[in-house]
UniProtKB/TrEMBL annotation:
Keyword Transcription regulation: yes
Organism per entry: Streptomyces genisteinicus
Alphabetized InterPro entries for the sequence: Homeodomain-like_sf, HTH-type_TetR-like_transc_reg, HTH_TetR, Tet_transcr_reg_TetR-rel_C_sf, TetR_C
Pfam families associated with the record: TetR_C_11 (PF16859), TetR_N (PF00440)
DNA-binding feature ranges: 40-59
Keyword hit for Protein biosynthesis: no
Protein name per the record: TetR/AcrR family transcriptional regulator
Length: 203
């Protein structure tokens, strides 16, 4: 192959940011439609008219491609929340979580199922999806301790993030109680606030 032909081939194989977003969009669409099992390198290649070899060259494995698509789609939902009070932070976190659920419940459900059923994806999902959200919730609690709002020894602190994320995971099973816009905010007010010693009605 001539130098010019090699350069042209290299250019064709390079994935631009725009092309990368097209590939990630196809991955997420397949996740929504059929879950993790529906995502294949062949399927993504067919939807995007991309060579399967290009996908393998760039991401090596299906779990890496899926987690890259999830990571590119989202920023950590709760990062940046700082209303000046723990009550305000938790209310805002609940509001944002409900908003995300209403916009993309199919994707959230697919990610939850994949986490439980596919060990090869679990560590990557923890790193990409779960751990950053838990870290952001924990940071809210640390700020509250630093402000003197919350006692450092309050035993409920360790359970806030698991409870918050757990409700997000199971709310589809209890849609008669948690399925509307008041479900998670109501849980925050009725359960987390008393456990943390936060008084007062929702504002």
């Amino acid at each position: 192959m001539s130098t010019q032909a090699a350069t042209s081939a290299a250019r064709r194989s390079k994935i631009t940011p725009e092309r990368e977003q097209e590939l990630f969009a196809a991955v997420l669409d397949l996740l929504r439609e059929g879950g993790y099992d529906a995502v294949t390198m062949e399927g993504v290649a067919a939807r995007t008219r991309c060579g399967k070899a290009t996908l393998y060259r760039q991401w090596k494995t299906k779990p890496r491609l899926v987690t890259a698509a999830l990571d590119a789609r989202r920023c950590v939902l709760f990062t940046g929340i700082d209303t000046g009070s723990l009550a305000g932070d938790l209310r805002e976190a609940a509001r944002l979580a409900c908003d995300r659920r209403s916009r993309d419940s199919a994707l959230m459900e697919a990610v939850g199922q994949a986490y439980l059923q596919h060990p090869d994806l679990r560590d990557a999902l923890r790193e990409t999806v779960i751990d950053p959200e838990v870290a952001a919730l924990d940071a809210m609690l640390r700020r509250a301790v630093d402000r003197g709002e919350l006692a450092a020894g309050n035993p409920a602190i360790a359970y806030v993030a698991p409870c918050f994320m757990g409700v997000l995971r199971v709310e589809r099973l209890f849609d008669d109680r948690l399925g509307d816009a008041d479900g998670l905010p109501g849980f925050v007010e009725a359960v987390l606030f008393p456990a943390l010693g936060i008084a007062g009605p929702a504002r």
